[in-house]
């Protein structure tokens, strides 16, 4: 049996195209032509001697072979990028002060710190999980080197747009949230909150009555209240607990931007390195092209049977 040696550049185009839901977007992101990326995919299919994509409606989806290859390709690229980061910055040392929204404070922070500490064992990270206003205040005051925060329209001098994510209605799949024309119960952060405002504005526009059933300054408390069936909430898919679901047939919500803020225009090498790893890990965390599929798989909270 002949031994295959995959081209990592080809795998990177393949993985990015799947994550973005478009190989044209992947080509633009990588600075290549669409025809060049198409040639890479043809090369990949020739190597595995099986189709890796099939047409579904107007788009393309993975075949069983493609799903297997996609899983291994992500692991190969992660190991390659970790090795490259490690050898390029083996002498780095110091401290980086990082701030994050709660949505990214559990799984994402654990993975990011793990990748970073393996590559740079002599750099210490001081992490702070907080809400937007405090994060921006700490960056502006020089008490954080980096902060990953939602776009509230009040940026900092040295910030970088990362991505834009759809806000989603989230709840339990087995709950009836409205009966006898009662207002829709909402679970939300204490005011002011961007996503709380988005939820109430959307409901008001759709003329759906609502009430605030539970508030908290803690995201873990928000998830617990939604999990207990007290109401529905609005967040993005980032950090969504597995026992909760995206809810369909609800008023449309806007997207929200994600911004990486820096305290300095020319940050120190350890800060630059952590920025790079943050952005790579965010690519893996936020497969936003799947949101439409997830929404279609869940029914409306206004129509579900009691659970």
UniProtKB/TrEMBL annotation:
Organism: Ferrovum myxofaciens
Transmembrane segments: none
Molecular-function GO terms, alphabetical: DNA binding; DNA-binding transcription factor activity
Annotated PANTHER family: HTH-TYPE TRANSCRIPTIONAL REGULATOR LRHA-RELATED (PTHR30579:SF7), TRANSCRIPTIONAL REGULATOR (PTHR30579)
UniProt cross-references to InterPro entries, sorted A to Z: LTTR, LysR_HTH_N, LysR_subst-bd, WH-like_DNA-bd_sf, WH_DNA-bd_sf
Family the UniProt entry places it in: Belongs to the LysR transcriptional regulatory family.
Ion transport listed as a keyword: no
Top-level taxon in the UniProt lineage: Bacteria
Transcription regulation in keyword set: yes
SUPFAM superfamilies found in the cross-reference section: Periplasmic binding protein-like II, Winged helix' DNA-binding domain
Keywords: DNA-binding, Transcription, Transcription regulation
Annotated ranges, domain HTH lysR-type: 6-63
Name used for this protein in its record: HTH-type transcriptional regulator YofA
